[in-house]
Amino acid sequence: MPAVDSVALARRHVDEIVRPRVAQWEREGRLPRAALEAAGDAGLCGLFAPAEAGGGALTFAEGMPVFEELGRGDAAYGFVLSMHNAVTATLARHASAGVAERWARPLCSGRALGGFVATEPHGGSDPAANTTLATAVPGGYRISGRKAWVTLAGEADVYVMLCRTAPGRGYRDALLAVVEADRPGLRVTRLYDKMASSFVPIGELELDGVEIRTDEVLAPPGHGFQAALAAIDVARVDIAAIAVGLAAEALAVVLAHGRGRSLHEQPLLALQAIQFMLADVETDVVAGRLLYQRAAALLGTPQGPVAAAHAKRFCPDAALRAALACSEALGAYGWLTDTPLPRFIALAKMLQVVDGTTEIQRLVIGRELRRRADALEG
Ligand SMILES: Cc1cc2nc3c(=O)[nH]c(=O)nc-3n(C[C@H](O)[C@H](O)[C@H](O)COP(=O)(O)OP(=O)(O)OC[C@H]3O[C@@H](n4cnc5c(N)ncnc54)[C@H](O)[C@@H]3O)c2cc1C
User: Fold this and answer.
1) Which of 112, 229, 285, 313 is 20–30 Å from 236 (CA)?
2) 1 inside domain
3) CA-to-CA distance for 318 and 232, rounded, in angstroms?
4) Residues lining ligand 1, judged by CB closer than 6 Å?
5) Helical packing angle, 224-259 and 60-73, nearest 10°
């Protein structure tokens, strides 16, 4: 049991800061940096980073329930903290002493924000087709290319970026680097208008001869893809936990509403069709929680990536089913924006895509099944 109860701190952060303000953030369309600083004060910005870097040094099993709490408050806000934590932990783990000294504490404290940059405009599921090129120059690399779907574009102070070092298809040449947001040649070219989460800037970057030093390389050519995937596997489990939080909260909204509503001279919650729908949601919440907890326990072992894929495959789909079912159980009220359900439906859709779509998780699981078949004797 860690000395600090991060799950309780996350719950308090959600109750006092996220839930009361998220509708206002959505209306204003501006990233709530003060809230993220408060998240840093609560230890939520460096959950898995080592203590000497200012992090919480939590195990994945200890830290993942934090994301379930964040998902109860707002899945987009939870997603921002997932990406930020991916940057913080990756940087704290791989950075040179100088780079860690410059960035680890500010990131863990939430005073600086990090973006994790892999996807390119041609499509995120096929990193072998990436073309952003880091060319070796004396003392470092010069990076040129375009990146898409960058969460915190324009708000992040530092990016962890996946780049190729050779032209043509492939990923074995990839490196992972720290790119400071104010480097000459780096600019935000587009911010997307989205279905929800207007307060989270997501957009495109152009890099035109951006120079980085050798000591800003986190994983050299040949190791970049693996280092990025290790971070993405953790993020997949974060997302699964956020999805469970969203589904649990959707159910809580219906239970609170259903207590006071009668139909056909009986309570709404006594209608068997409603009970069956909600029973399925509850089973999904329980199953999803077990899946993300299992994946969290296996991260860092050879079984980690497939366990993460199972959790990421199941939980966002379950969250979308939950949000739709709970909206239906509210009748017309489920369509009103003074309930969170319309936002939950949009955000569950988002959770299916981020950090690798549901289909990509099936590919990971399918590859494992083929390996198992190949290992059969006879
Ligand atoms: C809100 C949001 C925030 C994001 N933030 C970031 C970020 O901060 N950093 C970052 O790097 N990326 C980010 N992404 C990008 C995300 O990782 C990609 O969207 C995702 O990897 C899918 O890529 P794509 O959208 O280009 O879809 P595509 O790769 O074009 O895929 C299109 C469709 O084809 C399916 N598909 C693809 N390959 C296969 C296959 N082999 N078999 C079957 N079906 C397949 C996909 O499942 C999908 O349905 C973000 C995305 C969203 C929506």
Assistant:
1) 112
2) no
3) 21
4) 83, 115-119, 123-125, 149-151, 202, 350, 353-357, 359-360, 363
5) 50
- C-alpha of residue 242 to centroid of ligand 1, in Å: 18
Q: Spell 128-164 as b/e; 16+ CB within 10 A means b.
A: eebebbbeeeeebbbbbbbbbbbbbbebbbbbbbbbb
Tell which atom from ligand 1 comes closest to the C-alpha of 125: 29
Residues of the domain holding 56: 6-112
CATH number at residue 17: 1.10.540.10
Which of 117, 119, 343 best tests ligand 1's pocket when mutated (most atoms within 8 Å of CB)? 119
pLDDT tens-place string over residues 248-283: 999 999 999 998 899 999 999 999 999 999 999 999
CA of 312 to the centre of ligand 1 (A): 13
Instruction: State if pTM tops 0.85.
Output: yes
Number of compact structural domains in the chain:
3
Alpha carbon nearest to ligand 1 atom 13, residue: 149
Distance 127 CA to ligand 1 centre (A): 10
pLDDT range class, residue 3, cuts 50, 70, 90: low
Yes or no: say if 88 and 46 are a contact pair by the CB < 8 Å rule: yes
Which ligand 1 atom lies nearest to the CA of residue 147?
A: 11
Nearest alpha carbon, ligand 1 atom 18: 124
Same domain, yes or no, for 190 and 257? no
Same domain, 145 and 104: no
Model pLDDT for residues 125-149, shown as the tens digit of each residue: 999 999 999 999 999 999 999 999 9
* Sign (positive or negative) of CA dihedral 161, 165, 166, 171: negative
Within a domain: 367: yes
The last residue of one of the domains, among 79, 112, 145, is 112
